[in-house]
Design a protein that fits this description.
Helix content is about 35%, strand content about 20%. It is an alpha+beta fold and about 525 residues long. The strands form five sheets. The protein has a seven-stranded antiparallel β-sheet with strand order 1-20-19-15-14-9-8. A seven-stranded antiparallel β-sheet has the order 7-4-3-11-10-2-21, with helices on one face. Strand 8 and strand 9 form a beta hairpin. Helix 1 runs antiparallel to helix 4, helix 2 runs parallel beside helix 4 and helix 11 crosses helix 12. The longest helix has 21 residues. The radius of gyration is 22 Å and the shape is globular.
Length: about 525
């Protein structure tokens, strides 16, 4: 049976935005990208076309979060069934453990952090399988923004300057992103004609040039020039995988995530632990609800950091980690009145920008792509506008760890799209929360707010969030009731209240909830988010 959501249309949080309603909806983190998606729907395209147009535009208008050298994941409801796509890239063949011997951690900058980028393969696969419009049409708004320019928004301008400070000395970065040697300020027009040409080439070749053509040769040549390991063979070997989803019942819904190497399983584990612990007996923003949620998240993360990796390298399976008996045992470790510092369990006996779109036919898309850390590695291939992620930083150097760096291997990945289904198998909500290690924690909080407590998507996106930081540490956004903050401290949580722009630490949420023959969308004001509909 489907159930009626939302039951609460109020928005008690500071932005006081209203939810957006319509039969065709796009919600993402930047208004120009949202408009690009809406243009596809108005042109007769479907939700996949809209999501891809927004995603491609985001590489131009929000380069601080994604680029042509990002990775991507998607969950698509095609009107009949759910599909999961893993388009994260693998490490170069030359990345043996010996290559990183003597280091304390994986590099976060430069070519030694760059795995094969997968986002372009996601665009090509999704367009080929589900799109209605030519990829050249879908790419047109992004091409226009890159070639003619766009005004840089205030949040992105701040992130851009942080990128300059951290990555300005990386190969190709200044040429591509620092006109006149400076990051563009809010309101300035920024143009990237090289990226416009590359987008056209990607669209015209359905991504082939990026992996097996002219663009691939340029990427590999630049890697050789700077001592990187990536080769033409590494790029040609890449493929995006239709991997299905993993799922966890919660409340009267079923939450779906992409299987590992993505860390979405952490959200599913935390929700399963919460269900076993009896979540829902206290009000939504009550300290008991917040405390229990934090403790469940810590238990899930302890396991994920130990076990999550390229699924071919994992020593436990997703089914082991989601076993109801195991999650019930983990739930018993929660002290309702005291913060814990849990280690990982024994489940087996003996990382951004996000876009969601939905159309009148019933198709819904949950799509995410990311550089990982801001502008990623900082490496930009000259004359192409291809800025490369630093997903290699997600590997471990611990000998024997399932996520230890190795050749042609996917690292444990923070970027994760989410999707909720009704118990009767009909689609309910596509959603995501950007922001590195905030993403699985955000999925838990969105699921609690909308699917258990019936809050409307905009209020859920606006509500203050918490973030587990390690040990007994927890960061809170301003907006939690003072008595909740004090009681969390009294229970032993090491609380920090992080003021300023929440996008830096608490991500940005986008949600589309299906209700009958229309949709209800929310979009996060922390990151210039906008939902548009007709």
């Amino acid at each position: 049976m489907t159930h009626s959501l939302p039951s609460d249309w109020t928005n008690p949080y500071p932005s006081a935005r209203s939810a957006v309603l319509g039969r065709n909806v796009v919600s993402t983190s930047q208004p120009l990208a949202a408009q690009a998606g809406l243009r596809m729907l108005l042109a007769g395209g479907n939700a996949v076309d809209a999501a891809l147009a927004a995603a491609m535009a985001l590489t131009v208008v929000e380069p601080s979060g994604c680029g042509l050298g990002s990775d991507g994941f998607a969950i698509v409801w095609d009107g009949k069934e759910l599909h999961g796509l893993n388009a994260s890239g693998r490490s170069p063949q030359g990345w043996t453990p010996d290559r990183y011997a003597g280091r304390d951690a994986m590099p976060e900058k430069g070519w030694e952090a760059v795995t094969v980028p997968g986002a372009v393969s996601a665009w090509a696969e999704l367009s080929r399988r589900f799109g209605k419009l030519p990829l050249s049409t879908v790419a047109a708004p992004a091409v226009q923004y890159a070639r003619d320019g766009f005004p840089v928004s205030p949040v992105i301008a701040t992130l851009w300057e942080l990128g300059r400070q951290r990555l300005g000395d990386q190969p190709g970065f200044a040429e591509a992103f620092l006109p006149g040697g400076a990051a563009p300020k809010a309101g300035e027009i920024f143009r990237n004609p090289a990226q416009a040409s590359t987008l056209e080439q990607i669209a015209d070749t359905q991504g082939e040039s990026f992996y097996r053509g002219e663009l691939a040769r340029k990427i590999a040549a630049f890697a050789r020039e700077h001592g990187g390991a990536m080769t033409e063979d590494d790029l040609a070997a890449h493929q995006a995988d239709w991997c299905g989803t993993i799922a966890q019942p919660f409340s009267r819904s079923v939450i779906h995530e992409i299987p590992p190497n993505g860390q979405g399983i952490a959200a599913l584990m935390a929700l399963g632990i919460l269900e076993a612990a009896g979540i829902g007996s206290a009000p939504l923003d009550h300290v008991d609800t917040v405390h229990l949620s934090i403790e469940a998240m810590k238990l899930a993360l302890a396991d994920v950091y130990q076990y999550n990796a390229d699924i071919d390298a994992m020593r436990v399976t997703p089914d082991d980690l989601l076993n109801p008996a195991y999650l019930a045992e983990r739930a018993k470790l929660i002290d309702p009145k005291r913060a814990g510092d849990p280690g990982y369990g024994a489940p087996k006996p003996g990382g951004t920008v996000y876009v969601t779109a939905a159309d009148a036919s019933g198709m819904m898309v949950s799509f995410i792509q990311s550089n990982y850390m801001g502008f990623g590695s900082g490496v930009v291939v000259p004359g192409t506008g291809i800025s490369l992620q630093n997903r290699g930083a997600g590997f471990s150097l611990a000998p024997g760890h399932a996520n230890q760096v190795g050749p042609r291997k996917r690292p444990s990945h923070t970027i994760i799209p989410a999707f909720a289904m009704n118990a009767d198998g009909t689609p309910q909500m596509s959603f995501g929360v950007m922001g590195g290690p905030m993403q699985h924690q955000g999925h838990v909080q969105m699921s609690l707010r909308v699917l258990l407590y019936g809050q409307n998507p905009q209020a859920a996106a606006d509500a203050p969030r918490w973030r587990v930081t390690g040990g007994r540490g927890v960061a809170l956004e301003p907006g939690f009731a003072p008595e909740v903050v004090q009681e969390l401290k009294a229970r032993g949580h090491e609380v920090s209240v992080e003021s300023g722009n929440g996008v830096f630490a608490f991500g940005g949420a986008q949600l589309i909830l299906r209700k009958g023959d229309h949709y209800i969308a929310g979009s996060d004001p922390r990151k210039d988010g906008q939902a548009v509909a007709f």
